[in-house]
Design brief:
The protein is 19% helix and 51% strand. It has a domain at 2-62. It has one helix spanning 32-48, and strands at residues 2-3, 7-16, 20-29, 52-56, 59-63, 70-76, 79-85. Strands 1-4-5 form a 3-stranded mixed beta sheet. A two-stranded antiparallel sheet has the order 2-3. Strands 6-7 form a two-stranded antiparallel sheet. The chain has 1 helix and 7 strands. Strand 6 (70-76) and strand 7 form a beta hairpin.
Length: 90
Amino acid sequence: MAKLSGEPGELSLKFCSGRGIDEFKQKFTLTNTETAAFLRELAQEIETGGEVEVAHGSISISVNPAPPIEVEVEYEEDELEIEIKLKATS
């Protein structure tokens, strides 16, 4: 399990009748050390294969990602953004 520590920020939830949570989005502010620890845990889960789980406090979200994993890198106005997409196996 890749645990997010740090300070949670903006939260967005969308529900779907009969399915529960359809979309979850939350931003976190982490120190360099917290970020590195999270990325190491996430990398270990991806490399091991199977279910990838991310948690903060009592909230946990998991997906069994299908390869390939999509990584998007964007640089704009002195800000580097790296997005990793883990799409669930069908």
